């Protein structure tokens, strides 16, 4: 074998090595992307779970039932609603950046129906929505409008 033939063989082996390396990197990037999506979903789930676990259910029940709520308790409700909506906004952002899939997002965001089921909570949302991303606000407002006056807490007659 001449030096020219050995050079050509070396170039060929090098090219195969580059292609194999690129294929390996593509697989690694895909696996890393899937792992990041899983971590994002897990974080979103934990945030929502922690928010829901921290709710004062008796306070929210009184609020939803239209009872008079003292100002300090109304302040707690506002803060808890703000925290819940921040969690939903985080999921919206992750969905917008393709970190979680649409079907997973739809399952979580359907909880907005419960969160904003009553007029009182929708009024609180109206008072605080200027603190959120405009795209998120537009999506939530459209969702609430689509749901209309559906109240999942009221038994059907």
Summarize the structure.
With 157 residues, the protein is an all-alpha fold.
Name the descriptors.
single chain; 157 residues; mainly alpha
Biggest sheet character: none
Mean pLDDT: 84
H/E series, N to C?
Answer: HHHHHHH
Helix content: over 70%
Q: How many beta strands in the DSSP annotation?
A: 0
Distance between the termini: 92 Å
Binned strand content = under 5%
Secondary-structure class: mainly alpha
The tally of domains stands at 1
Radius of gyration: 26 Å
Categorize the overall geometry: rod-shaped
Continuous helix count: 7
Which ranges are low-confidence, i.e. pLDDT below 50, for 5 or more consecutive residues? none
Molecular structure report:
The chain has one domain (37-147). Helices cover 78% and strands 0% of the residues. It has helices spanning 3-53, 57-64, 71-96, 102-109, 111-115, 119-128, 134-147. The chain starts with a helix and ends in a 10-residue tail after the last helix.
SSE layout and pairings?
Layout: H1 3-53, H2 57-64, H3 71-96, H4 102-109, H5 111-115, H6 119-128, H7 134-147
Helix pairs in contact: 1-3, 3-4
């Amino acid at each position: 074998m001449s030096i020219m033939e050995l050079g050509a063989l070396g170039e060929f082996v090098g090219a195969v090595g580059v292609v194999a390396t690129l294929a390996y990197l593509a697989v690694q990037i895909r696996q890393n992307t899937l792992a990041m999506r899983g971590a994002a979903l897990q974080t979103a789930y934990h945030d929502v779970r922690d928010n829901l676990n921290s709710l004062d259910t008796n306070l929210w029940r009184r609020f939803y039932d239209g009872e008079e709520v003292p100002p300090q308790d109304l302040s707690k409700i506002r803060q808890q609603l703000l925290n819940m909506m921040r969690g939903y906004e985080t999921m919206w952002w992750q969905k917008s950046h393709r970190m979680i899939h649409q079907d997973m997002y739809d399952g979580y965001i359907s909880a907005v129906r419960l969160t904003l089921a009553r007029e009182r909570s929708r009024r609180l949302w109206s008072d605080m929505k200027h603190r959120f991303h405009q795209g998120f606000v537009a999506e939530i407002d459209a969702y609430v409008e689509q749901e209309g006056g559906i109240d999942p807490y009221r038994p059907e007659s």
